[in-house]
Design goal:
The chain is an alpha+beta fold and 366 residues long. It has 11 helices and 16 strands.
Length: 366
């Protein structure tokens, strides 16, 4: 992403100067890179320009300079996906850039939980034939994200100042045009000439991105305006609600779980949406819960750790218990499928010590 953002800024600068002068147990739970998913970003770009229409203070030279401000909407969309063993090749399209529509590729290493980004030219060497994948360069993301995690080129990793590496600085809540997102990871990349900062929200992706040049004014602030994940559209997130009310057929709700629901999204649901979700999700609960564990061994561990039994409880009572579970900040990132499984097993009398061990296990991996 950083490379593409820099290209966008430099291209805009060239245009203006010629006329006037970018854990979870599986990668998919962190970044939903599935076909037709898209993210709409609201960009504001400031470029130093003698013909600019406003002044901004440049702290690096200690005085005000004239600059031009550009606002635009940029859409990032998943065009297609292909699976090759432990790898997933994701073709991405970006609209609203100075170059028009551009494409690039994410290569998802599910085994090592990493995402790599490649241009159209680079992907040809990565996918040298129909079977093999040759990974080059450092990853764009490593999961699960956690405070203190850093990654980058081997030589940069030897530095003690956390410069020239991606570094997860902290977790914080962030408000953007699409709404308020809780427990976002602030990822910084500092160099001598510039800096990039992004806020990554699990189950969503990048919700805010900032780039600043240490010298001339070349700044970008990009914020998530709208999110569409398969059948779930967040165009109403700014109103603190999700447009995911299931279709009603008679007395039955028909709803397919297309996104991992955790505390951040659950709290945005209305009471009716919570009921609809629970009723539509009850069937196949255990299968859905273990589906997101990437390896057979971990699935077997889950099944062996806690019984797959059901308990009797009303929907209203279940919603109250889910709300109570998510009131503990340590549980924010645990997907709801596991939360319901925990509650059901509490109701049928499973040993509380076993359940608490299981909760600690989930806190560690999500």
């Amino acid at each position: 992403m950083i490379g593409r953002i820099l290209i966008m800024i430099l291209a805009l600068e060239a245009i203006w100067s010629s006329t006037f002068f970018r854990v979870y147990s599986s990668v998919g739970e962190f970044y939903p890179l599935e076909k037709d998913n898209y993210w709409v970003y609201q960009d504001q770009i400031e470029i130093q320009d003698l013909q600019g229409d406003f002044e901004v203070y440049n702290k690096y030279i200690g005085k005000k300079v004239t600059a031009k401000r550009i606002k635009q909407l940029r859409t990032l969309k998943v065009l297609s996906t292909e699976t090759r063993g432990d790898f997933k090749i994701v073709k991405m399209q970006e609209e609203g850039t100075p170059e028009g529509i551009i494409t690039f590729f994410y290569v998802v290493d599910n085994k090592n939980r990493r995402i790599y980004s490649y241009s159209n030219e680079e992907i040809r060497t990565i996918l040298s034939n129909d079977k093999d994948i040759t990974i080059r360069g450092s990853p764009e993301y490593i999961f699960p994200l956690q405070v203190g995690l850093k990654w980058g080129e081997p030589e940069s990793m030897k530095r003690k100042d956390n410069m020239y590496v991606f570094f997860v600085e902290k977790i914080e809540d962030v408000t953007v045009p699409a709404g308020t997102f809780k427990n976002c990871f602030k990822i910084v990349y500092y160099t001598l000439p510039d800096e990039t900062i992004q806020w990554f929200c699990p189950n969503v992706g990048v919700i805010r991105f900032e780039y600043r040049h240490h010298g001339t004014i070349n700044n970008l602030v990009s914020e998530l305006k709208q999110l569409h994940i398969n059948e779930i559209d967040s165009s109403n997130l700014s109103k603190k609600e999700l447009d995911i009310i299931p279709e009603v057929s008679g007395s039955e709700f028909e709803y397919m779980n297309k996104v991992i629901i955790n505390s951040s999204l659950w709290k945005l649901f209305t009471k009716r949406e919570k009921k609809a979700y629970i009723l539509g999700y009850a069937n196949g609960l255990v299968n859905a819960a273990i589906y997101y564990l990437p390896t057979r061994k971990k699935r077997e561990e889950l099944i062996g750790t806690i019984p797959n039994l059901a308990g009797d409880i009303s929907v209203d009572e279940l919603i109250e218990k889910i709300d109570e579970f998510y009131s503990d900040e340590r549980n924010y990132n645990i997907p709801i499928s596991y939360v319901i499984l925990i509650i059901r097993n509490q109701l049928i009398g499973v040993d509380e010590e076993i359940i608490n061990e299981y909760i600690e296990y989930l806190r560690a991996i999500f």
